[in-house]
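To start, one record:
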Amino acid sequence: MRELIRLVSSAGTGHFYTTDKNKRTKPEKIEIKKFDPVVRKHVIYKEAKIIFCLKKSRRQKKPRHRRAFSVRGSQAFCSNIT
């Protein structure tokens, strides 16, 4: 059972790596020394969960209603009749 994880820099730069790990064989949290390009040094990266955010719009969309009649120019016609 593989799980996506995020390795976050301990230097506080906000830089991170993403990887996966086998949750069954490695139940403990991972700490790896990797290169942080922001501070240009090798620092310790600690495991954190990946948070999946689904962006929801604040305004709810109104349902589209089918109009039976529409007016174009000065003529009115029924759109349901072919």
Q: What stands out?
A: Strands lie at 2-9, 16-22, 31-36, 41-49, 69-72, 75-78. The first strand starts at residue 2 and ends at 9. The chain has a mean pLDDT of 80. The CA atoms of residues 8 and 16 lie 4 Å apart.
